[in-house]
Amino acid sequence: ADKLFLRVRTGKIAEDLYAVLIRDVSEQRAFEQMRRDFVTNVSHELKTPAGAISLLAETVNDAADDSDAVRYFSSRISKESARLTELVGRLIDLQKAQDEEQHPDDVTTVNVPDLVREAAGENQVQAEAKHIELYLSIDGRQIELGNTWPEGLTSEKAMVLLNRDALKTAVKNLIENAIRYSSERTRVVIGVAVVDQSVIIRVVDQGIGIPQASLGRIFERFYRVDPARSRATGGTGLGLSIVKHCVEECGGTISVWSRESEGSTFTITLPLLSQEDGASR
Ligand code: ADP
């Protein structure tokens, strides 16, 4: 009976090992496939503006005597090279976000409302260009960007322990998208509130919204609901995948609510470190 038991056990172990091996191999394959897809996508994204630049440069050359044409084609060359620069910058951000995930250095205590105000301030020029009002909202009270926090707020001193750069990149990217996918003269509100043991950061826009069918895919690298629109407005399809990496590196989660032609709300939830009592001052 012992022998039989042993045979049964070794058989079971072999089976388990085999299962693990198969799983490892298929995970490895999936990873390899992802890597290949990524390289294909990057090459495609780089080739499009690079090809356009060389074509436009030839055209400028042919039209050298026509100063209007030279001006027009030169400005298109500038636009395409700006796109290349944007894309390369985003790829570096993505790489950084992935590296930081593996080496969670530079963790410090961060005051969330201050960070949010800073990130919003860095997007103010883009907002003004589209006459979009950027507002901060803390504990449900709306505050103009340049104004100081009013007295009596409880979330003003919400602190978290994380990589400040990563969180700022995430919030900035969300605000950038909110502006990019909104019409002129709308409003973008960036909210902060403490709920239980979490700090919630919300970026709310009144923009074009995201179709339900796409909601599950927007955090994928290079996924765009409308590639032409995203390109025309300077998008790369990498923004939200960078946001997701950054938020996860901070130990947080991200979710999205959206309805077409109503707007979108992106919510980051982070573990609260401490909340000094701002109300008692
Ligand atoms: P992109 O560089 O194209 O903006 P992202 O990864 O940042 O790439 O976003 C992926 C896609 O999700 C965008 O192309 C756009 O279709 C959609 N999207 C992201 N944010 C918003 C938003 N605030 N409102 C509407 N659509 C959005």
TrEMBL record:
Cellular component terms per the entry's GO annotation: plasma membrane
Keyword entries, A-Z:
Kinase, Phosphoprotein, Transferase, Two-component regulatory system
List the subcellular locations: Cell membrane
Residue intervals of the Histidine kinase domain? 41-274
Instruction: Give me the reactions it catalyses.
Output: ATP + protein L-histidine = ADP + protein N-phospho-L-histidine
E.C. number:
2.7.13.3
For this chain, one GO molecular function annotation is:
phosphoprotein phosphatase activity
The biological process GO terms on file are: cellular response to phosphate starvation
Output this protein's name.
Answer: Sensor-like histidine kinase SenX3
